[in-house]
Amino acid sequence: AGKTEVYFEAVASALKQGRQVLVLLPEIALSAQWLGRFEQRFGALPGEWHSDLTGLERRRTWRAVQAGAAKVVVGARSALFLPFRDLGLIVIDEEHESAFKQEDGVIYNARDMAIVRARAENVPAVLVSATPSLESLVNAEAGRYDLQHLPARHGDVSLTKIEAIDLRKHPPMRQQFLSPVLIEATRETLANDKQALLFLNRRGYAPLTLCRTCGHRVECPNCTAWLVEHRFRGRLICHHCGFNTPRPVECPACGAQESLVACGPGVERLQEEVKLHFPEARVMVLASDLIASPRAAQALIQQIAEHEVDVVIGTQIVAKGHHFPDLALVGVVDADLGLSGGDLRAAERTFQLLYQVAGRAGRTNGDGRALLQTYQPEHPVIAALASGRRERFLEAEKRARADAGMPPYGRLAALILSSEDESQVETAARATGAAAPHLDGVRVLGPAPAPLALLRGRHRRRLLLQTRREVDIQAVLQAWLADVALPNAVRLQVDVDPYSFL
């Protein structure tokens, strides 16, 4: 819709006033196209701030910001804490992204903290997204934010046509994952000298390695998680703690030889199937674990934009703001992935992700088409995407949240206790639960083992505090935890407004 060009005007206005600007992006390592557009618009590159910079580069940027010499800085969430001398504008691009929430160390949401800093500095904050978060939409409806709506794509290009493929009616062949409908659509796209994107939000080759003899599933020794096979590397890897090991020749449980099989698809396995159907096609796999640096990311994105690739197979990193002129087809291999689970934002996140990835198609000529492979075409998320009735889905989601007293109509805080000693953390969790407050408008759920009951070698228990919107949740937490004495070996982490429920 041209949202970047709109906030570039705000950036230009701040620069005319001689003031500094901060732009926060959720995936700074994949911002090559954004940086190119910025340089084209303003004649110079902005300062950068992210974890891939060297120590020397970070010191130079920090000093330039403090001195006022760096007029525009683009960065990840930590850029919010740079010592701006005369900040005039904060832009949070893709404000709905969960990547703005830091969950290790000091827990905070960079989007929300950006608004706090903008108010403290008395400067405007611009939240930008094609799929705004429910929290931001409700704030706009309540008059706390101003809402500016761009109803059409830039240049009158029509929106992508989204269709659902019912896998119950059009199933893939045995041991394959692409429906005949999607295969034929890809074939037509390539025949028209256009590009196709196959989206699957699973890194690696397969999410599970199973023994055909005894049924043993290969798990991480440090986490409650299966090891993911990465065939490009020849390793089984835990995506939570980083533990990795060579793929065993025999089953660790029963010792059966050559009995381990890969179950389910990842992007690497999907590449094998694409090569089977389209042996002449130039195929690229794009996933975060295959990108070594921002420069490597820039080179890959440039290859796609210049049509040096026919079929792109990617995870969620391809859904975020990229512009590929010749991309005409998006095929979502598993649209049901992420629809279920204990996450209150599961439906909202899935809608945002699928809407964003579908929007990569047809951005130049308006000939875009997106096909969603699903076993649940009647699900509200899939139905809303296929029918274009986004507002109906959002209204239903708001009603469900309001009825349950969940954010943004209520408040949540997660308490996560962990220890290397399981019995010790269990005792501490029970004691914490026993001290829970009994107040009007306050409810405590748990303690219970976390879905990831073992993470990085630590046993975990969770409690969830739910309150009405008007309750001072920080005061409730402070009074509650003042009465709790924990052993030194037990760690307590408090996450107000949690995004992860693992």
Number of helix segments? 13
> Overall pLDDT, averaged?
91
Shape: globular
Largest sheet: 6 strands, parallel
Portion in beta strands: 15-25%
Radius of gyration: 24 Å
What class, by secondary structure content?
Answer: alpha/beta
* CA(first)-CA(last) distance: 35 Å
Spatial strand order of the main sheet: 8-18-17-9-16-15
Low-confidence stretches: none
Q: How many individual β-strands?
A: 22
Portion of residues within helices: 25-40%
Structure description:
- This protein is of the alpha/beta class and 502 residues long.
- The protein contains 13 helices and 22 strands.
- The protein has a six-stranded parallel β-sheet, sandwiched between helices. Strands 2-3-1-4-7 form a five-stranded parallel β-sheet, sandwiched between helices.
- Helix 10 (380-387) packs antiparallel against helix 11 (390-404).
- The two termini are 35 Å apart.
List the helices and strands and how they pair.
Elements: H1 3-16, E1 20-24, H2 32-42, E2 47-49, H3 55-67, E3 72-75, E4 87-93, E5 101-102, E6 108-109, H4 110-121, E7 125-128, H5 134-141, E8 161-166, H6 180-191, E9 195-199, E10 208-211, E11 228-230, E12 235-237, E13 244-246, E14 260-263, H7 267-277, E15 283-286, H8 294-305, E16 311-314, E17 327-332, H9 346-358, E18 369-374, H10 380-387, H11 390-404, E19 410-419, H12 422-434, E20 442-455, E21 458-468, H13 473-482, E22 491-496
Parallel strand pairs: 1-3, 1-4, 2-3, 4-7, 8-18, 9-16, 9-17, 15-16, 17-18
Antiparallel strand pairs: 5-6, 10-14, 11-12, 12-13, 19-21, 19-22, 20-21
Helix pairs in contact: 9-10, 10-11
